Amino acid sequence: xxxxxxxxxxxxxxxxxxxxxxxxPDLSVELRKVENADEEVKRFDAALKQAISELSEIKDxxxxxxxxxxxxxxxxxxxxxxxxxxxxxxxxxxxxxxxxAEYAMNEVSxxxxxxxxxxxxxxMKERAADIRDVSKRxxxxxxxxQVKSLATISEETIIIAEDLTPSDTAQLNPEFVKGFATDIxxxxxxxxxxxxxxxxxxxxxxxxxxxxxQQGDVVIVDGIDGNIVINPTDEELREYEKKRxxxxxxxxxxxxxxxxxxxxxxxxxxxxxxxxxTPKDVEGVIRNGGEGVGLYRTEFLYMDRTELPTEEEQFEAxxxxxxxMEGKPVVIRTLDIGGDKELxxxxxxxxxxxxxxxxxxxxxxxxxxIFRTQLRALLRASSFGNLKIMxxxxxxxxxxxxxKAMLAEERDKLLAEQVQVSDDIEVGMMVEIPSTAVAADLFxxxxxxxxxxxxxxxxxxxxxxxxxxxxxxxxxxxxPAILRLVKMVIDAAHKQGKWAGMCGEMAGDExxxxxxxxxxxxxxxxxxxSILPARSQLLSLxxxxxxxxANDMLxxxxxxxxxxxxxxxxxxxx
Length: 574
Hints:
The protein is of the alpha/beta class. The chain has 22 helices and 16 strands. The chain folds into three domains: 3-22 and 149-251, Phosphohistidine domain (Glucose Oxidase, domain 1), CATH 3.50.30; 37-143, Enzyme I, Chain A, domain 2 (Orthogonal Bundle); 262-573, Alpha-Beta Barrel (TIM Barrel). The chain is 48% helix and 13% strand. Strand 7 (218-222) and strand 8 (227-230) form a beta hairpin. The longest helix is centred in the first third of the chain and has 30 residues, at 37-66. The radius of gyration is 25 Å and the shape is globular. The relative contact order is 0.09.
């Protein structure tokens, strides 16, 4: 049957091959009352031990084939299986309710998955995928069900699945697996991230692919525009083969720009930086020609562990990043945790609306010891490279001043201890709250730079949770209201002789880039794999010519109208 489906373009490129339907094994469980709870706990422990052993093998293979940063996922999986919150909860059910191990494991893991999936945060949603992945592995062992490995594929295929777990994607051999398409998932799911690192074209979230494709069907996966074609016509095959060749040629052109400056057609230099989560991500920044790190999310240092990181651990992580970037700017965001991003060891109160709650700078100004430890580590690392400090979620000048005062106090203490600290650290803040954008002229006098966090700014401005599918239509980066707020921030910075950057998804968006350039944005920070396409686009644009165009877009009626006008403009530039 010939059919076209659309989904989310997760990894660019075009793949054409036969479908390989990856079906999940039957891991359904039934409740059995166990007579001997101790024996059942031993059976559970043995399954955990085997699962950890298997994961260690996958981790080593991934490290060898894809690099240490990709193997981190499996280190996290091993941590999940060693987490007392999960393990003890299962054992508790076996001991107190006399449940069989597989039923108890399924109950506990399902509870955690539901909890994490309900959180409005990409990192936490990925934790749900991790728990689902590891629990399947343990259940497979307990039920004695063989979980089929994708590593055995030995002919060119496109994998069709409801979703692919990190374990699945780590086993894909790009020589044979030409692409994949899934029913569920988003651009930031593990499978999407892995597909980009493997450079395998992928379309996720198609909703129907497993119901419509059959084993052996010829399938086209268009990871550029998010299209899937099942059993294409000869004409469609020719069309997509050409699209694939054009994309490969374009990639060759982009690769030539790795060491180039990002200079527009009219000679304006803008900085293209990358968003990172761990020191290991720096390799990708350098490989993709990043001119700096525009956002280092330090919360990853605090997660997947049972206690706070020490000052020394933090210092080593920050030092590693600034040293590897060899003098290029590294903007490190202070701890952005709380509310939706839980740390079990902090015992934070549950909140009705965590995104508007006790988080980020609000938490740090109250939990002063945690904040001061991080500030000391940052200050100590500053003398090893070009480190800039950024405070998240600033809503008032009082918060900004309090954070800066604590930073100054810790700096004085370190200098009194004869510890070397850089004497020219730029201190900036995230702009992610609409009131902060509106009052940007007040803040601009007291910071060295702004970085606009559009992911939150958009959902706060539109009063629409971007993870809620029923209101996701309101998540509109090109809405004139958003563009006006962005302009306010950039203008306020420039009036004070300061620079303005952006570290939200919008910064790497090819429709947003001409608008942001026209509005005068100085620094664009994005995922490392978006840097070269963005550089290529910026080289062909003139900031001077885009200024009046971008200002006109502030007065359009709708986001759709703005998008259409930008696409017309880009078409004329081509």
